[in-house]
Amino acid sequence: METTRQNKIARLLQKELGDIFLLQTKAMPGTLISVSAVRISPDLSIARVYLSIFPSEKGGELVGNINDNMKSVRYELGKRVRYQLRIIPELKFFVDDSLDYLDKIDALLK
Question: Which of 6, 18, 58, 92 has its CA 20 to 30 A from that of 29?
Answer without folding.
Answer: 92
